[in-house]
Write a structure and sequence with these properties.
heterodimer, A: 109 residues, alpha/beta, Rossmann fold, four-stranded parallel β-sheet, 4 strands, globular, B: mainly alpha, 19 helices, protein-N(PI)-phosphohistidine-sugar phosphotransferase activity (chain A)
Chain lengths: 109, 445
């Protein structure tokens, strides 16, 4: 299954966003995605294991300093990386974040 | 926001980038993440020992359950294997992590770090037997496996793996094999010379250091680096400064704890491990400032003691948007997760709420410190995960001190009082504030 990978500091604060995005995905129907959150430090291992399934990586705004490093890691697999919008993240706006994730995923090389 | 502000946050962001990508810092941070379950397992053993198996303080005090005291050895063994062996675990993990960052495919750098570490510590102890000092050989004294040698272990792990990597990259040092030799055999020889040279250098350095200065390397590192850092953090100003730095990063929306972790984790996890050991052994508890102290008094509801902010919004907040975010944040807040508060309310780049956000943990930390010093609240003796809800974390981490629970409640009350006036201001500055918010969010994304 295609994976939408979210990452923050411990993977916990983003879990609320994850559940909202899942709900939005269910409501949307269509293709099923595995949406989940991990700690930012675990991205590399996650990519080694699942780079063929991950279609987009979205970082929590609090770890946006990790963007450059993550991009470097994801580039060989052509996986787009972005930082989640502060407002959408803070309000856990699952619909808009999912929309953004799918839009990015469609750019995957 | 003005241009100056942009420049300022930009500078802080690049600091954050540098800190989080410096490889040695990263290796240490990552290792302590992996190490956390070890500490929690140790905490479990300490809790069970004291609350159940101990014939004076535990369940075993009742004659009906006195047989439980017989089982103390089990928890004692777990305690030794975890809390008293934390430095050894840290050395191996840091070696593995740095090795991975340096591009080694195998886990060997972890072993390299361990070998190097053991090679610089003395393996004999002087023991008094019948009034005369006897030298006992071939022992690993506790001070080399417990947190007392944590910094020496960290340094040796980093240095040895760096040396090993450096030598591994030298072509001259790799043993060339004819093409007919299978590649697996060739790689098995590849790390041979680099390992020999690395360990020889480290062991010789430890040896020479002792010969030339008369003091052991571990004593030097402990006295010159670890102890001054420990005493700095054990004093109120030290811990408040650390918290201030973390809060400062949070205000621009960067995970502040991630920034201070490399220094906080070794010191505060070390100090709670020491406390847990003392508690299990029935000795006097040495450290006031520990990881649970941070979580119980300075991080209630998340960074910035935002439990107070949420309560203040429920009491006095007039903005509908703010109230709905507060409602959304209450659930995660119980587990000390507050990103929705920071990014949703928002606290980030909010000149009004930044003030209480920074000062509240400093004040509640001071309250907790004073309460502990005067003995009203007990010192923390058990590590609890940071996601443990308030009240429960105060009670559990102090081994059941109601004084600590009351102190935490006072801290919560104080946090509400500090945040309240700022909510009144935020109510009045509605338009101005919202203007800022839109502008800042477009800029950051």
């Amino acid at each position: 299954m295609k994976r939408i990978l979210l990452a923050c500091s411990a993977g916990m604060s983003t879990s609320m966003v994850v559940s909202k995005m899942k709900k939005a995905a269910d409501a949307l129907g269509g293709e099923e995605y595995y949406i989940y959150a991990i700690p930012e430090g675990a991205i590399e291992e996650e990519l080694q294991a699942h780079h063929d399934e991950v279609v987009v990586i979205m970082l929590g705004p609090q770890v946006r300093f990790a963007k450059r490093a993550t991009e470097k890691r994801a580039a060989p697999y052509g996986i787009p990386v972005d930082v989640m919008d502060v407002k959408l993240y803070g309000t856990a706006d699952g619909e808009k974040l999912l929309e953004k994730a799918l839009q990015l995923a469609s750019q995957r090389q | 926001m003005g241009k100056k502000m942009d420049k300022f946050t930009g500078a802080l962001e690049s600091v954050a980038y540098t800190i989080s990508n410096q490889k040695h810092i990263k290796a240490i941070k990552q290792s302590f993440v992996t190490l956390m379950p070890v500490i929690i397992v140790g905490a479990f053993a300490v809790l069970v020992e004291n609350m159940i198996l101990d014939p004076e303080t535990g369940l075993a005090a009742f004659s009906m359950f006195s047989f439980l005291a017989e089982l103390q050895g089990i928890m004692g063994a777990i305690n030794y294997a975890t809390l008293n062996f934390i430095t050894i675990a840290a050395v191996v993990l840091i070696g593995i992590e740095l090795g991975r960052i340096n591009g080694h495919k195998s886990l060997f750098p972890g072993l390299m770090a361990l070998i190097s570490y053991i090679s610089v510590i003395p393996t004999t102890v002087l023991l008094e037997v019948d009034g005369s000092l006897q030298e006992v050989v071939n022992v690993l004294a506790r001070e080399f496996s417990d947190p007392k040698s944590l910094f020496l272990g960290m340094f040796i792990a980093l240095i040895s793996v760096e040396l090993f990597t450096w030598f591994s990259k030298m072509d001259k040092l790799t043993i060339k094999m004819p093409d007919s030799v299978p590649s697996n055999v060739t790689t098995s020889f590849a790390s041979l010379f680099p390992s020999i040279i690395t360990v020889t250098i480290i062991a010789s350095f430890g040896f020479a250091f002792h010969r030339l200065t008369g003091i052991y390397l571990h004593e030097a590192v402990y006295n010159v680096i670890q102890r001054p850092l420990e005493s700095a953090i054990q004093g109120l100003p030290g811990i408040l400064l650390l918290m201030f730095v973390a809060q400062f990063f949070w205000v621009i929306g960067i995970h502040g704890n991630q920034m201070i972790k490399p220094i906080r984790e070794p010191l505060l996890l070390g100090s709670i491990a020491v406390n847990m050991n003392a508690y299990a052994a029935g000795e006097e508890i040495p450290n006031i400032i520990t990881m649970p102290f941070w979580d119980v008094y300075m991080n209630i509801g998340g960074s910035g003691v935002t439990i107070g902010l949420l309560a203040a919004i429920f009491i006095a907040g007039k903005k509908q948007e703010m109230r709905s975010i507060a409602k959304l944040s209450a659930g995660p807040g119980v587990f000390n997760i507050n990103e929705p508060v920071i990014f949703g309310v928002p606290v980030m780049l909010n000149p009004i709420l930044a003030i209480p956000f920074i000062i509240t943990p400093l004040i509640t930390g001071t309250i907790g410190y004073i309460a502990t010093v005067i003995g009203f609240a007990d010192k923390a003796v058990v590590m609890v995960p940071w996601t443990t809800p308030p009240i429960i974390n105060a009670w559990l981490s102090t081994g059941g001190s109601w004084g600590a629970v009351v102190t935490q409640l006072i801290c919560i009350a104080a946090s509400i009082l500090i945040y309240l006036p700022f909510i009144f201001i935020a109510n009045r500055t509605r338009r101005l504030d919202e203007g800022n918010k839109d502008e800042s969010s477009t800029k950051i994304v």
